[in-house]
């Protein structure tokens, strides 16, 4: 069994006397729900100006391996980009590295994937710059003047919105801390809250080449670049992260500590068990270091010339993905306008997301923890099951049966006003689950 770990700091001493030094730190912990397996991987290398966090997608089907494969490919590629490269060259290099990692993950770990955010720090004409690339929902932040700003855009369900609307909504969701904050969201916003862990892009995407986002920032003294997996920013609000980043000297360690504590508090609105990882690069530090390390599910020492890695010692890595316990990368289907999808049932819940944010789960009674039921296959509303004082929130689904759900025929469910009278149909035939939107007013989404 590997251990999670906090990794030794590294210092990048500038070649130019007027440029500030950089200090790299990182920490990663496995989820409390599977402490024996960490699907995150992190890496940093002061000599080559590299930092990254990755979140494996695929659970027992290889999420941990996918994040390691992607990390090692990206590290080797970024080491080939000189610190003195011009920004356009570095941007192309980061984009190419992420695409190459995606191709290799798809070939070597089929059925799994990884999110990633990577940074390459440059020294150009008396100025420090950082080029950042991302795929999925791992994030980069900039702390400057005591204000924390998210740099990257998530490849999430809000990605289809106009950019300014997306940013405003993402900021609102990142601000939720209490049940009152959640209740203050309107129905549309609550729908996005309940699907905020769904990702539309990842390394190893079987539907095509991943499309990286690339960003450039000119750095100033006392800046901090903070890279996190969703185990951090799902469990902690933006305000909480900003406070830790401003007040704590070891930001990576403190972010992981606070996020892990939150993930164990099932009474909190943001609580989510997950792998948890952070890498922080501080601008303007002093003492040099000869260390040269890339770390993750195993700590790796990189060959300075070839970039080939050999295990150095067992250690536990970082964070998660939006599908922390799913067995395949999550896919989302929008059935608006009367569309239908037929899904082969493979022993994991299929989720139907209604416009109010209400989630119906479909699966066998074992996987849904409904062993007391006399029906072997069910549709359930887990929230209704746990909060209702009467028998409500579930319905059996027999082989060959089709059921219509909506406000006109709710069965044992309660539906919001924005759910149509006859909203959707769910059927079970020959090992497939068939879900059809009945031309509902506000649409239906399916997540597998």
From TrEMBL:
Span list, region Disordered: 1-34, 306-330
Recorded GO MF terms: protein serine/threonine phosphatase activity
Domain called PPM-type phosphatase: residue spans: 24-283
Domain FHA: from-to ranges: 419-448
Polar residues composition bias: residue spans: 320-329
SMART domains per UniProt: PP2C_SIG, PP2Cc
Pfam short name (any one): PP2C
Gene3D superfamilies: 2.60.200.20, PPM-type phosphatase domain
InterPro entries: FHA_dom (IPR000253), PP2C (IPR015655), PPM-type-like_dom_sf (IPR036457), PPM-type_phosphatase-like_dom (IPR001932), SMAD_FHA_dom_sf (IPR008984)
Protein name listed in UniProt: FHA domain-containing protein
Organism encoding this protein: Candidatus Daviesbacteria bacterium RIFCSPHIGHO2_01_FULL_41_23
């Amino acid at each position: 069994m590997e251990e999670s770990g906090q990794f030794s700091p590294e210092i990048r001493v500038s070649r130019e006397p007027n440029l500030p030094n950089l200090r790299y730190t990182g920490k990663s912990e496995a989820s409390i729900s599977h402490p024996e397996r960490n699907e995150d991987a992190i890496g940093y290398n002061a000599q080559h100006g590299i930092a990254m966090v990755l979140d494996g997608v695929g659970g027992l089907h290889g999420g941990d391996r996918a994040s390691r494969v992607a990390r090692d490919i990206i590290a080797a590629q970024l080491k080939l980009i000189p610190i003195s490269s011009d920004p356009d060259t570095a941007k192309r290099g980061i984009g190419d590295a992420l695409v190459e990692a995606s191709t290799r993950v798809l070939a070597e770990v089929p059925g799994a994937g990884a999110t990633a955010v990577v940074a390459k720090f440059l020294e150009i004409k008396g100025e420090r710059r950082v080029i950042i690339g991302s795929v999925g929902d791992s994030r980069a932040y900039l702390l400057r003047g005591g204000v924390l700003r998210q740099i990257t855009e998530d490849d999430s369900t809000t990605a289809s919105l106009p950019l300014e609307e997306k940013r405003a909504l993402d900021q609102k969701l990142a601000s939720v801390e209490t049940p009152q904050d959640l209740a203050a969201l309107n129905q549309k916003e609550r729908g996005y809250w309940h699907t905020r862990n769904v990702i539309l892009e990842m390394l190893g995407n079987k539907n095509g080449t991943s499309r990286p986002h690339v960003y450039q920032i000119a750095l100033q003294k006392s800046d901090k670049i903070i890279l996190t997996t969703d185990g951090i920013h799902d469990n902690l609000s933006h305000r909480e992260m900003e406070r830790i980043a401003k007040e704590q000297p070891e930001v990576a360690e403190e972010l992981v500590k606070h996020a892990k504590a939150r993930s164990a508090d099932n009474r909190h609105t943001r609580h989510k068990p997950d792998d948890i990882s952070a890498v922080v690069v501080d601008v303007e530090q002093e003492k040099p270091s000869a260390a040269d390390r890339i770390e993750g599910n195993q700590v790796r020492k990189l060959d300075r010339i070839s970039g080939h890695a050999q295990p150095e010692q067992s250690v536990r890595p970082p964070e998660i993905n939006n599908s922390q316990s799913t067995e395949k990368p999550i896919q989302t289907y929008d059935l608006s306008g009367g569309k239908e999808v037929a899904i082969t049932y493979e022993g994991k819940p299929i989720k139907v997301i209604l416009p109010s944010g209400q989630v119906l789960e479909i699966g066998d009674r074992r996987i849904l923890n409904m062993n007391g039921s006399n029906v072997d296959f069910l549709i359930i509303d887990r929230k209704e099951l746990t909060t209702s004082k009467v028998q409500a929130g579930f319905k059996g689904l027999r082989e060959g049966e089709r059921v219509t759900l909506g406000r006109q025929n709710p069965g044992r469910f309660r539906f919001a006003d924005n759910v149509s009278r006859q909203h959707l149909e769910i059927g079970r035939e020959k090992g497939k689950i068939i879900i059809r939107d009945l031309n509902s007013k506000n649409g239906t989404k399916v997540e597998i």
